[in-house]
């Protein structure tokens, strides 16, 4: 099993450009999450999904959109990138109700995004 | 609002020492607490998960305890090795079955010297 994978690993954008980050998991997890990690701020939840076709806002959702068209994939979109979105983005997944309610999270390797 | 703190922010120990990392949270109504390890430039690796009804979990040289009433968890690492050098983070999940409000601590950066 590959676990949780993220594409791309690195990206540099100019202000105003758009991009999509892809997260894929092969563990049949119901729940998927997008976080950003910034120095001094720790990990913060951007958006999450509790199943195919569902999405919900986390702590810092502004400027981001997400989609979960397939159970194994969770996409994070930046429509108009800003320098404040320079960060390392992590995707995670977990079992939910069907898996015994443990919610143990498994993380991808991260995407380092720089917006100039 | 749930806040999670970790003390110390950084720790340097000689190889072989036993050590304790601390995690504190302000709201005791948690569902579970998870300890992670993060190597530089890498993602997070799950180490131990403690459900709110449990007092401790063990995996190899690692032992995590949970005291909900006092809002504390500790991660005990026995016989530390240079390969244990990493940042250790704790995260708590809100006590409900639907909201996915995980709150992470800032981490403790551990260096184990050969």
Helix-strand category of chain A: mainly beta
N-C termini distance of chain A: 36 Å
What is the C-alpha radius of gyration of chain B, as a whole number of Å? Answer: 14 Å
Number of strands of chain B: 11
The major sheet of chain B is characterized as:
6 strands, mixed
Mean pLDDT of chain A: 91
Briefly note the structural class of the backbone of chain B.
Answer: mainly beta
Helix content of chain B: under 10%
SS summary, helix count of chain A? 0
Summed over residues and divided by their number, the pLDDT of chain B gives a mean of 92
Kindly report the greatest chain-chain contact and the residue count on each side: A-B, 26 and 24 residues
Low-confidence stretches of chain A: none
Q: What is the number of helices of chain B? A: 0
Percentage of residues in strands of chain A: over 45%
Helix content percent band of chain A: under 10%
What is the succession of H and E elements of chain A?
EEEEEEEEEEE
From the structure provided, what is the oligomeric state, counting identical versus distinct chains? heterodimer
User: What proportion of the residues of chain B form beta strands (DSSP E)?
Assistant: over 45%
- Tell me, what's the shape of chain B? globular
Number of strands of chain A: 11
Topology pattern of chain B, helix = H, strand = E = EEEEEEEEEEE
């Amino acid at each position: 099993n590959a676990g949780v994978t993220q594409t791309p690993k690195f990206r540099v954008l100019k202000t105003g450009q758009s991009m999509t980050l892809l997260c894929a998991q092969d563990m049949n997890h119901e729940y998927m999450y997008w976080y950003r990690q910034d120095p001094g701020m720790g990990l913060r939840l951007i958006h999450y999904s509790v199943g195919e076709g569902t999405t919900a806002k986390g702590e810092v959702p502004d400027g981001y959109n997400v989609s979960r068209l397939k159970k194994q994939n969770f996409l994070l979109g930046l429509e108009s990138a800003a320098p404040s979105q320079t960060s390392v983005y992590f995707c995670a997944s977990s079992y939910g109700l069907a898996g015994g309610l443990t919610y143990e999270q498994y993380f991808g390797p991260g995407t380092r995004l720089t917006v100039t | 609002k749930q806040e999670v703190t970790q003390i110390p922010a950084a720790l340097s120990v000689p190889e072989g020492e036993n050590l304790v990392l601390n995690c504190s949270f302000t709201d005791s109504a948690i569902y579970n607490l998870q300890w992670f390890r993060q190597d530089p430039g890498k993602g997070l690796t799950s180490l131990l998960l403690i459900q709110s009804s449990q007092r401790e979990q063990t995996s190899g040289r690692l032992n995590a305890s949970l005291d909900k009433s006092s809002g504390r968890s500790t991660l005990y690492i026995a016989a530390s090795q240079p390969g244990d050098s990493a940042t250790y983070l704790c995260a708590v999940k809100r006590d409900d079955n639907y909201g996915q409000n995980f709150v992470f601590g800032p981490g403790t950066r551990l260096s184990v010297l050969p």
